[in-house]
Amino acid sequence: MGAGLRLREAAPGDEALVLRFVRELAEYERLLHEVRATEEALHNSLFGTPPRGYALIAEEDGREVGLAVWFFTLSTFDGRPGLYVEDVFVTPAARGRGIGRAIFRDLARRALAADCTRMEWSVLDWNAPALRFYRAIGAQPVAGWTVQRLNGAALTALAA
Prior knowledge:
34% of the residues lie in helices and 24% in strands. By secondary structure, the protein is an alpha+beta fold. The protein has one domain (5-159): Gcn5-related N-acetyltransferase (GNAT) (Aminopeptidase, 3-Layer(aba) Sandwich), CATH 3.40.630.30. The protein has a five-stranded mixed β-sheet, sandwiched between helices. Helix 1 crosses helix 2 (39-47).
């Protein structure tokens, strides 16, 4: 990791940058067709009252090279919060320089400062580089659990 790395809180005015990184991540994950976020929606989610999530921007030598988005969860078994990492993205040209590790270190520190008992995130099964990185920082898959999702028409139907 270069000495020129800076991690900063995303702030109002960063919505276009956050959206750009979200779209770049989605393109890498072959999910660009699923991105419906807008700058306004990101503003409301990240900077509204109350904020629904948080973001940080990684800058290297003054250039924006990465993004992390997270929110807090609650473990009823622990009776304490957890930190859920929604997205971490480092631009392809900036990978391999410790930026991802610095982001995860920062998030781990935030988790401990907030009395969290864990950090969790999801990863696509085919993303071997990400899986190798996660093993290298000590993360382990959660055996016996599968992510479930309710959205779109199914979410609306259930709510009706």
